[in-house]
Give the backbone structure.
Amino acid sequence: MANQIEVPELTGFSALRFLWRQLTSMKTALVLLLLLGVASVPGSLIPQRSQNPMAVREYFSNNATLAQWMDRLSLFDVYGSPWFSAIYILLFISLIGCVLPRSFEHFKAARALPPLTPKNLDRMEFHSRFAGRGDELAQGKVYLKKHRFRIREFEGAISAEKGFLRESGNLFFHLALILILIGVSLGALFGMKGEAIVNVGERFSNTPTTYDSLTFGKLFSDGSLTPFSLQIDNFEAKYDLVTNAPQDYTLTVTATDKPGDTPVKRIIKVNSPLSFGSTNVYLQANGYSPVVTVRDKKGAIVLQGPIPFLPQDGNLTSIGAIKVPDSTPQLGFVSSFLPTAARDAIKGGISSFPEALDPKLLFSVWQGDLGLDRGIPQSVYRIDTSLMKQIGLDSLKVGETFTFTEGSITFDGFVPWVNLQVVRDPGKNYALFGAIVAILGLLASLFTRRRRIWIRANSDGSIEVAGLAKNAAPGLEREITEIVEYLQKERR
Amino acid sequence: MTHSSWAYLSNYLIYSSMAVYTLAFFAHAYETAWAVRAPESQTPEGNLLTKTLDYTRTEKVARIATAFMILGFVLLFAGVIARGVSAGRVPWGNMYEFSITGALAFCGAYLAALRKYDLRWLGLLVSIAVLLTLGTAITVLYRPSAPLVPALKSTWLVIHVSAAIISGGVFLLANTIAAAYLYLDSMQAKGERKAWAKRLPSLEVLDQLSYRLVAFVFPLWTFAVVAGAIWAEHAWGRYWGWDPKETWAFITWVAYAAYLHARVTVGWRGRKAAWLCLFAGSTFLFNYVYVNVWGTGKHTYSGL
Ligand code: HEM
């Protein structure tokens, strides 16, 4: 066929170049941006493992086949999924490919002079012609200089331009987006996040084994953990007496930056973490650990100490498991701790206030096999009683002891525990800096008007003033009128 | 005064402002209606089909309507302040408080825009929207005044939430104008504007206005999201966690960025742009209503 459209042969280098052009076109970038928005929707409607693992488990138990399919599509880990990552990595590349060349061009153009005055000024958006007196060009120059236009004079005409900041701001905004993405990636690759429940009075040192849960970025190594340690001295919670809502939490610790340093007293609050370089320690949650002593039939101590219980409601009604694997047969106490004991007709024993005003320990005693050796991970807050039998039931106040056939349990008291979250994010300052530059760039770009203004003295003595605004920026008409008035003003 | 008497005063002020907004609504409605029925004798050249509207006789009513809008704003403002005093903090702790402050911001955006543009006609829609918001707030969302939970105790609450609420007010104003654009556009497509709509600005003006409003607050919304991230970093140990609230704030941001791009770089105008504007605004509303009420996550401060 003669009139065939010429299709470039897509081999090797030219194919790559074609792909690169497509990828870095603004249309692609916009589509990717919108796609990123759309792709983030499912994660806000379907529970995510990273935020709400319980709800995900519920999904699996309600409809296992569907949940498995959803899991294959990473619908429970949307924001870490291959397809989500693919979109933002492509956007990242597209932005770089599209913004960097533009930046070079722009900063080259920034040094250039405004273009020459065109022949037909009356074709411009705004145009005015009036009879001159002779000093208009000089006066025009004064005016334009005063208003910080960049000026080019040529053969009886002035061309002036202003508002370069618009493009500069715009480019800085887009470059800053790249910086934010770099900051986010650095955090994901070199960051770490861990949580640990620590009783008041105990010590926390920043080593992998002290954590209850710990996740590392892909390129983080154990050795990079900052070697600080904390002695948990005191935890104070204040509650509203009417609504029971928490008002204030204060955690007092003695911090040692690294082994050998002098310890310093520090305070951690909900909105003010403790920092060790780029590692921050946050106060995340709190609860109670009842302190108990369990003795066997002969009176020998088989278990002693505080055991963290898990809060179930705003009044810190807590459940927990006291497991005694070292006695024969093994013992287990399925327990609840009520900081301020009360009775509810349906739920039974509950707490009516989060502070420990009238603490009580409720439990049933079980004897048999705790099932700890079966290799299936167990919750520390629950006991699998399928191989056990119940041999007792009681509730104790502080200091009281309950004796049963196999021994006794004493409720010695309680200490608060706190959940510390330790986060290291080496990329966050880049992201913050990027965000600040992005906002400044946006302001510069959205509130700067780019426009060109020409003044020409014609050979017939008439003066022409004309203007052109990029992107139909408003206010140019007024500006032109102002210049015309300025030029026509009587001067002594 | 005790805390509860401040709370009582706040409720009283908010009921009063609702009464005043009702008056403003009727004044605006009356103004529009009266201008249309301008007698033919006053406009000798006008024919029956193209009634020329006579604003001289409605000017007084219109001024009264605007005065009511301002008075309502002042009462609402005082009500919001009194609510804050009663709780001993900024009045942004639950959804009732977000709603009354949001209504205040919306009304404030209207009054601020009124100084610069001839937007009086929009008072009818604004007064209705404010009435509906306040009505829902005080009947469905109302919660007794109480102190903040520790996570909300931060200077960033003031910075982040005020930026978000102001952006929201202006986004919704832009949405109202975009909706008016679409309505008038389809009315004009069928022929001439109906008499009552004649005094509304031309389609071009509406189109420009909703764009300007969005371009004006987009940086503020960006700032609100960034301030939220900074606060999240202080409170929760991560600046971005794809919590539903954060996700939808991001979606709103992306949607408005797409809107700005569509206008500035692709040259969208008119209906397409107005629909995109409405879409972006609805992601904001969705975030406010759905995520606050039914959503899960860390941002569940609605108190419902
Ligand atoms: C390859 C990618 C992109 C290119 C080539 C690009 C290009 C542009 C251009 C040419 C403008 C108009 C500047 C002007 O004339 O004033 C602009 C504005 C803008 N862009 Fe982008 N952009 C890209 C990606 C993005 C992304 C990812 C965002 C993030 C949300 C974004 C947000 C904005 C905003 C908010 C404006 C301001 C609109 C205005 O000036 O009214 N852009 N962009």
Observations:
- The first strand of chain A starts at residue 126 and ends at 131.
- The pocket of protoporphyrin IX containing FE is lined by residues A 26, 29, 33, 94-95, 98, 166, 170, 174, 177, 445-446, 471; B 215, 218, 254, 257, 260-261, 264-265 (CB under 6 Å).
- Residues 287-417 of chain A form one domain.
- The two ends of chain A are 77 Å apart (CA to CA).
